[in-house]
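Structure (tokenized):
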């Protein structure tokens, strides 16, 4: 294999999905510790800043000119080149969080062992499942009291509809946490706390088949319980099948405690072995493989600068094939132009590194003078094609927007349109009228604040937001076959259209969706909007 192929094949690009507080940041820190990217865990990103109140967050954005929490981390481990895509959570959960998943080849799902599957995990999982990417489960916080292990697996299977295959198994939890049993080599790794900023620590292992030693290590009660559980597990759980894992049908499950750095390296090693190399992507001329010579990438996220003095934006793109060389021209399909990408950079949490080259699987951020849109393709003029677009994700919060000063109609429309193009908000109109009545939909409520702030500061327009009760939106998949004005809905349903005139339905109650489907034969609704 030549250097080019080797570089691509050693790449693993993934996102970590979880509900806030499950331990995503902590796990990321520990990964970086193993990769030697940082010396001390805890300095990945200012966790404190990530949790700031809205007003502080705005200040941070202004100072830095870029969101502190939107980044990609690259590090090396064992000859692998790893890209972790940060999926903003907490208050800054937004459509960007979903879009980031479009750039990943696999996902790590972190679950708190005392909580099981939670709301945000469920939402992010759905997007991963739609793409059929492999999902690896890390059940975290075993140093705290845990739910029953079988119940946790059941929860994942039932809530998410994916089969589970435990690679290891916890012995006790909380104060009685003894360690984990690895099924493949039948070894028990005794729990030890290696938190204190180092990756070393005494790893003590004992074989379950050395009965006397194992009993001594974990105690009679836990030893017997473990034997019982393994027997049950061997009979009940799905067999490990890498094919199924890679299709996203089976999730390997690992247990550990990110805080105390236990079970993290075993997870990382196995994950890297099982996860895929950069995946091929669908384009209008067929699938493009990453090891193809010609460079290509697509834009999955645009980060507007909150700093008034620097109105530039950063476009994040995922390289899908070839090698990026900063000295060469690339071709922007949607703009129909050749160009040099200015200041391509890798955005780490705290600093930006100017790049001269990058490979398929990598993410780069480039300065965007306002020419890129989400979903745009970059390639070479020698081989032109377009990648499949990025779907629009269902907003869950809606508000009617009113201008305080109706004289500023032009600025208002311009501002709303631009902010919508960057993908921060989605704009809808009444189905039968025009721009007078605007409804804005967002994935995360913070985007309402962002909208208000930016309209005031960048466009000098003051607005009032009136929250609406809708929480569910559906695109009409077969809109060309259906007469939308004839759709009979429920009393809480509202018909709207997006900026391109596509009809959509808004609902307050989830069950109204099903009722509307029942009442309108042949109607096909979708939670994702496709171009
Ligand atoms: P997130 O990014 O998924 O939101 O979670 P994060 O890593 O920030 O972890 C949330 C809280 O859970 C943190 O505590 C963190 O220390 C703790 N935590 C993470 N992994 C483990 C684990 O394996 N065991 C235990 N016991 N706790 C864990 P915090 O008090 O909210 O934050 P901090 O003030 O300690 O930083």
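Design, position by position:
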């Amino acid at each position: 294999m030549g250097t080019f192929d080797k570089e691509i094949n050693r790449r693993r690009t993934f996102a970590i999905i979880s509900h806030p507080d499950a331990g995503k940041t902590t796990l990321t820190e520990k990964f970086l510790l193993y990769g030697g990217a940082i010396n001390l865990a805890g300095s990945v990103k200012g966790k404190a800043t990530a949790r700031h109140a809205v007003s502080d967050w705005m200040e941070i954005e202004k100072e830095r000119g870029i969101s502190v929490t939107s980044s990609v981390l690259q590090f090396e481990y064992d000859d692998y080149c790893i890209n972790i895509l940060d999926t903003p959570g907490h208050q800054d959960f937004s459509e960007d969080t979903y879009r980031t998943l479009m750039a990943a080849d696999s996902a790590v799902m972190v679950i708190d062992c005392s909580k099981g599957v939670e709301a945000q995990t469920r939402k992010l999982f759905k997007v991963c499942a739609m793409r059929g990417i492999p999902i690896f489960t890390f059940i975290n916080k075993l140093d705290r009291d845990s739910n029953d292990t079988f119940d946790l697996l059941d929860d994942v299977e039932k809530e998410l509809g994916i089969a589970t295959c435990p690679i290891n198994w916890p012995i006790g939890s909380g104060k009685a946490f003894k360690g984990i049993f690895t099924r493949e080599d039948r070894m028990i790794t005794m729990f030890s706390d290696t938190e204190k900023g180092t990756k070393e620590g005494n790893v003590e292992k004992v074989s379950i088949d050395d009965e006397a030693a194992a009993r001594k290590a974990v105690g009679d009660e836990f030893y017997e319980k473990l034997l019982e559980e393994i027997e049950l597990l061997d009979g009940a759980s799905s067999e490990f099948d890498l094919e199924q894992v890679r299709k996203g049908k089976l999730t390997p499950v690992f247990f550990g405690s990110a805080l105390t750095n236990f079970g993290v390296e075993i997870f990382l090693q196995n994950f890297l072995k099982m996860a895929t190399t950069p995946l091929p992507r669908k384009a209008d001329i067929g699938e493009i493989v990453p090891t193809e010579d010609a460079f290509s990438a697509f834009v999955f996220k645009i980060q507007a600068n909150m700093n008034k003095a620097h109105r530039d934006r950063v476009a994040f793109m995922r390289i899908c094939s070839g090698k990026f060389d900063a000295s060469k021209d690339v071709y922007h399909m949607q703009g129909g132009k050749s160009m040099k990408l200015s200041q391509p950079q890798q955005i780490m949490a705290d600093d930006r590194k100017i790049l001269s080259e990058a490979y398929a699987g990598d993410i780069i951020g480039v300065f965007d003078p306002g020419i890129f849109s989400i979903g745009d393709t970059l390639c070479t003029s020698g081989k032109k094609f377009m990648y499949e677009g990025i779907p629009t994700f269902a907003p869950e919060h809606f508000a009617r927007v009113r201008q305080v000063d109706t004289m500023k109609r032009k600025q208002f429309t311009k501002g709303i349109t631009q902010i919508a193009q960057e993908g921060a908000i989605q704009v809808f109109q009444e189905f039968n009228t025009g721009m007078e009545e605007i409804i804005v939909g967002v994935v995360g409520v913070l985007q309402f604040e962002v909208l208000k702030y930016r309209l005031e500061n960048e466009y000098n327009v003051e607005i009032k937001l009136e929250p609406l009760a809708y929480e569910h939106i559906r695109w009409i998949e077969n809109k060309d076959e259906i007469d939308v004005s004839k759709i009979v809905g429920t009393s809480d349903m509202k018909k709207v259209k997006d900026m391109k005139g596509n009809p959509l339905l808004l609902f307050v109650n989830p069950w109204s969706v099903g009722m509307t489907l029942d009442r309108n034969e042949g109607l096909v609704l979708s939670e994702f909007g496709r171009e």
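Reviewer-requested clarification: The two ends are 39 Å apart (CA to CA). The longest strand covers residues 296-304.
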